[in-house]
Structures are given as structure tokens and as C-alpha cells.
């Protein structure tokens, strides 16, 4: 199977790594290799490469900046997805488009199933929803994920690791719930989905279990051998942002099995993230519901 991977960020790097490790040819296309907003360039690239699967990891990810640059974000997160989907359909390739929990407003008390009504709170969520619709209308796959972290690029886990090593006592939001998800786990999930023969549609690619940002920060501190008590819980109102965040980002998994529990994944990821073994057993965060993984 030949893979084409758009985007040059954290997830794209892990999808490339997973594809290469499986012995299959994969072509990474960062922004300098392919402008996904250039419809002709997208069509020509897909036609020339003839991939079996295109994994679209490209996107406008600056959530707050999208509030004042929604048209530009829509070009990348919406219109470019339509161009990729059209090119894939014409070339007989499958598109797996990466989306987000931000298509929901976060007011539900329960995890959001794949077919839950969408209602974005912010411009970023609206543009990502436009991309979802473009992919689905053309018969392709959408994978929603959330709270992603990995070895490449800035993310919450790396920030908390730096603060823990410095002995800092950060204030961390404790009224937003979600599923921390290791990018390498999501990459493996995406490859399995693409190979599975499952029909086009929406699939949720997040770890099982749930916690808050405060709970995740405490877990990181413990794994660093620092005192989790240094992490102070605060409400979201303590950090006003241009873009509203959903209070509940927990995604249900009704169409396929979830990725392993977020705490197990974080411990497995730790040597890759830090170059060290975890210092203590991960037992300080909120466990959340356990889910079996097929």
C-alpha cells in the first residue's frame, strides 16, 4: 500500500514513521512540498503519486488566531479538504482526514458518539466541521481526535514536563475534560482504519478513559518524580482566551474500539517524550471509565 501524508507536524511525522516501519512506501508532503490550498497542485500531486491512501494531517491549528482569521483558516481546514477529497476520488485513492473534538460545544454530560449533532463554539471548530463535511460528502473517512501530544512540536505534556523539572507550581484548568492521546497511538489507529475495509464515515481516534488538564498535569509531575501537589486547579475563567473551549471533549467509540487508556499510553510514551523512564507509578490522576480495546 502506498501512502501520501500531508502536513509537517507532530501527527504527520508519526504517521510517516508508522508507515515506513510497516515496510510500505510513504511520501510526506509538508507545506514546502505541497500547498494544500492550491487545488491544481493537489490534483497533480495525487495523480502523479497514485497513492492508495492519503492521510490529511495538514491544517490551521492556531485555535485563537482563527477567531480573527476565519477565512484563512477555512481555506486550509475546509476548502483544501474538498480539493484533496476530489483528487482522491478521481485517482481511486482513499482519504483519511484528521478532525477534532472542537466540532462539539462540550455541553453534554456524556461522551459524544460519532453521530452526535455538531455545534462548534469557535471559528476553528467551524472550519474543521467544513472539512469533515467535504470529506464525508465525497465518500471518505474522518478521524476525530483530541488532546494530542507527542515527541515533535509543542504540546501540553512537554510544557508540563519542563515546568515539573523546574520545580514550578502552575495553575492548570480543571473544568475541561478530555482524553489525552499519544500521536504515535493515533498514527497506528489511522493505519489500521485505512487497512480495515471499514466503510467511509466518522471514527473517533482517542485514548480511552478521561481526565482534566489538571489531572493530566498531575500525572506528568508524578512521572517526572515531582510533587503533583504543586499543580493548582483553577477554572477556565482564570485563563480567558479569544476562542471558547468545550467543557466536555470526551469522545465515545461506537464504530470501532478505542485506543488504550490514556494513562497507559502516557507511560508507554514517556521514554520517547523525555528520554527517561517514568519515575513513579501513574496513580495520581482521575481514572475515568475503563474501556476494553480489541
UniProtKB/TrEMBL annotation:
- Protein name, please? dTDP-4-dehydrorhamnose reductase
Keywords, sorted A to Z = NADP, Oxidoreductase
Q: Which InterPro entries match?
A: dTDP_dehydrorham_reduct, NAD(P)-bd_dom_sf, RmlD-like-bd
> Does NADP show up as a keyword for this record?
yes
Record SUPFAM superfamilies: NAD(P)-binding Rossmann-fold domains
PANTHER family given in the database record: DTDP-4-DEHYDRORHAMNOSE REDUCTASE, METHIONINE ADENOSYLTRANSFERASE 2 SUBUNIT BETA
Say which domain of life the source belongs to: Bacteria
Q: What would be one Gene Ontology cellular-component term for the protein? A: cytosol
Q: Which organism is it from?
A: Nonomuraea montanisoli
**Function text:** Catalyzes the reduction of dTDP-6-deoxy-L-lyxo-4-hexulose to yield dTDP-L-rhamnose.
Task: Tell me which Gene Ontology terms the entry assigns under biological process.
Answer: dTDP-rhamnose biosynthetic process
Segments forming domain RmlD-like substrate binding: 1-269
The top EC class, named as a word, is oxidoreductase
Give the encoding gene's name. rfbD
EC number from the UniProt entry: 1.1.1.133
Pathway given for this chain reads: Carbohydrate biosynthesis; dTDP-L-rhamnose biosynthesis
GO MF terms here are: dTDP-4-dehydrorhamnose reductase activity
- Family affiliation: Belongs to the dTDP-4-dehydrorhamnose reductase family.
